[in-house]
Amino acid sequence: MALPGNRLFPDLIREEPLISTGIITVVPAYNEPGIPVLLDSLAACKPPYCTVEIIVVINAPPGAPAKDIEGNGLTLKAVEKWKSEKREAFFSLHVINLGVTAYEKWGVGMARKTGMDEALSRFTRINRPDGVILSLDADCTVNRNYFTETEKELLNVKNRKGCSIYFEHPLSGNEFSQEVCYAAATYELHLRYYLQALKYTGYPWVHHTIGSCFAVKASAYKASGGMNRRQAGEDFYFIQKLLPAGGYFNLNTTTVYPSPRRSDRVPFGTGTVVKEITTDGESGFTTYNPEAFRDLKEFFNLSAGSYNNCKKEADKIYDLFPFTVKEFLPLQIWLQNAESLIRNTSGPQSFSKRFYSWFNMFMIIKYLNFVHRKGFYSRLLPAEAAVRLLEMKQISDYPVNITGLVNYFRRLERG
Fold first, then answer.
1. Does residue 39 lie within any of the structural domains?
2. Domain that holds residue 315
3. Same-domain pairing of 65 and 157
4. Would 149 be classed as within a structural domain?
5. Is CB count within 10 Å lower at the N or C end of the chain?
6. Based on the domain organization, do 148 and 254 belong to the same domain?
7. pLDDT in tens, the chain (415 residues)
8. E-strand spans in 40-184?
């Protein structure tokens, strides 16, 4: 069940896994001397029935600054000290110390891949294809039911293959300044607005794609080809590979709490946006206009939701598409794909599934970037976009401040 041809390293953990192991959590760590906060949070969780392992992957890219390499040394010492002092912890803690890697394009994606490949190998050795690989980050904390809910909702449900896990950034408190919390709230509102806007279109596979907030069964991890080698954005691309196979869901009954600290390690994500907003102000951080999603909704209703009409009159249906969609999708390209979809499907259900495998998240993002780049729609501040979406859905009882909107969208998501 392992991925011998696609691994970056051979097995790196000597200890054999217990046959009862059901959950392995992978934590990339680059200059994270504060990692005991995460380990304490995990140790405070309610233990599941299965055995749990934690794999911390300490890593650094070629050319890493001396202070970061020193930070990795402190991270290793912190983990080893924690391990020696917390022998009563219900999980096994393993450390993979990669040092400074030789891979030129090393990044968090390859560190995550190293740990997840190791987890797959360990599940293979105990013949546990249903074992769960959890993906987490070193600067997070988690709800006490993190493992028990993962066990209940994913490990113990045969037809489920993976999930995105609910998250919340801290919006107040003494650990971070008010401006950092405000910036994190702005970014979280963007993420939750984007999710609700996608749901509004009728697109079937709507999930957050955050590296610290997802899980996958070992068999599904292998079937997808494993984690990719991207420096960043690895989570988005990996989860997109999982979706068409089915069995992926949103786990909303537990919570991961990502840190809102400033960072410039990757070109996007919480830390990058928080740094951008706290440095340059919120006016430079914008999101997609909800009108673009309204056009997608109309397009999906006319195409994916109209098997019989597409089968008979694909060219006439094209005339009904919103202007922005026709600008993005030329008639000839539409006809070629519509013909292929009809030819390779037997009814509305298979047609819809195949349609969304073609017009997937990659196409949606291309469309959204296209219509804003061409000036058909203007990008908006997340709060303005969120309010407009609610009004489009004829919702009027919403708060007007950032924190209130974030909490409102959190409730929408959790149901």
1. yes
2. 290-373
3. yes
4. yes
5. C
6. yes
7. 556 567 888 999 999 999 999 999 999 999 999 999 999 999 999 999 999 999 999 999 999 999 999 999 999 999 999 999 998 999 999 999 999 988 888 888 899 999 999 999 999 999 999 999 999 999 999 999 999 999 999 999 999 999 999 999 988 878 888 888 888 899 999 999 999 999 999 999 999 999 999 999 999 999 999 988 776 677 888 999 999 899 999 999 999 999 876 565 555 566 677 777 777 677 678 999 999 999 999 999 998 777 777 777 888 899 999 999 999 999 999 999 998 988 888 888 888 989 999 999 999 999 999 999 999 999 999 999 999 999 999 998 899 899 999 999 999 999 8
8. 51-60, 91-100, 132-135, 141-142, 162-167
Say yes or no: 108 and 225 in one domain.
Answer: yes
Q: Considering 373, 391, 406, which residue would you say is the last residue of a domain?
A: 373
Alpha carbon distance 32, 285 (integer Å):
27
Q: Are residues 253 and 169 in the same domain?
A: yes
Read out DSSP for 268-331? SSHHHHHHHHHHH-GGG--B--HHHHHHHHHHHHHTTT-HHHHHHHHHHHHHHS-HHHHHHS-H
Alpha helices, H only, 14-102: 36-43, 66-85
User: Is 58 domain-assigned?
Assistant: yes
The CATH number for 119's domain is: 3.90.550.10
How many domains are contained in the chain? Answer: 2
User: In whole angstroms, how far apart are CA 142 and each of 76, 98, 165?
Assistant: 21, 26, 11
Asked, for residue 389, whether it belongs to a domain, the answer is no
Reduced to 3 states (helix: H, G, I; strand: E, B; else coil), residue 395 is coil
Which residues are within 8 A (CB) of 86 and not within 5 positions of it... i.e. 6 or more apart? Answer: 39, 43
